[in-house]
Specification:
Elements lengths: L7 H23 L12 H36 L5
């Protein structure tokens, strides 16, 4: 263990420096870091992903239209009847 004699002014200066450093660091500690994952896609992969999502959206829209369209629309969709 080492001991040193330190003048009071030096001790005050070091204490003030440590206090200031801590006060400056506190806002960064409180700050919430938000990261957002990003997937990098080639233009071809991006096109495929967009087309797949559009297909899914259109399939869902067709299901909704069939549900509210009644039996005539359902029959026309499968080609069994003329409306």
């Amino acid at each position: 263990m080492q001991t040193r004699c330190v003048k009071p002014t030096v001790l005050q200066r070091h204490t003030l420096t440590l206090h200031t450093a801590h006060a400056d660091a506190v806002p960064f500690v409180r700050m919430q870091i938000k990261n957002k994952a990003v997937v990098l896609l080639s233009p071809q992969e991006k096109l495929i992903a967009n087309l797949r999502s559009e297909i899914k959206r259109l399939q869902e829209e067709n299901e909704r239209l069939r549900a509210v369209g009644g039996p005539c629309l359902r029959a026309c969709v499968v080609g069994k009847s003329r409306c």
